[in-house]
Amino acid sequence: MADDGPRMRFDLKLISSWIKPGSTVLGLGCGNGDLMVHLKEEKQVKASGIEIKESRVAACIDQGLSVIQGDINEEVRDYPDNAFDYAVLSQTLQQVYAPDDLIRSMLRIARKGIVSFPNFSHWRVRMQLLGTGHVPKTGELPYEWYNTPNIRVLSLKDFQGFARKVGFEILKEAAVRTCENGTRGRLVNFMPNLFATYGIFMIGQKTQKQEK
């Protein structure tokens, strides 16, 4: 995977490598727009986003992005079927009240979805809970129980089971371990549910075949 610059997170670099040049992309919970800007500049992607926080929306607009301020669960309803090639939900799934509804909406408005989330089954999380009896805090899950925006905690295995239950297909997946504030990382192939800090999945409707 090419080095896409020091400021972008490693998981976003990996997501970028999965997106074809010249495609259309909607970023759900797009944050400050780092991925969208990169895709526009490096892959000539037509990118837009939805973000609820006003300061982040302003940051996106300052970078020339087309962004809507609002709740992703509501705003996606306004898009027609197959409006995009990709819908990206990066490190936001764990903050969604109805993840199955949002996944279905993603796969209605986009040909493929890309989802990433922190792995609650990482060994450090397990050891903290076992050893201290307190809700774990890590670089990927840095909040106290009373102020965390994360209302869902899931593992890589949980998401794979979720795919079977909800009825979508996992087209591509990667387990990664990050460091240096998430700007660097590597793929985890050995016992990923134990050693990966994040999971990244490309998903599609059941009828789609595995993307090579």
Automatic annotation (TrEMBL):
| UniProt-listed CDD domains | AdoMet_MTases (cd02440)
InterPro entries on file: Methionine_synth_MetW, SAM-dependent_MTases_sf
User: Which UniProt keywords are given for this protein, alphabetically ordered?
Assistant: Methyltransferase, Transferase
An example Gene Ontology biological process = methylation
Gene3D superfamilies named in the record: Vaccinia Virus protein VP39
The protein's matches in Pfam families, at most eight in alphabetical order, are given as: MetW
Cite the GO molecular-function annotations of the record: methyltransferase activity
At the top level, the lineage of the source is Bacteria
This chain's protein is named S-adenosylmethionine-dependent (SAM) methyltransferase
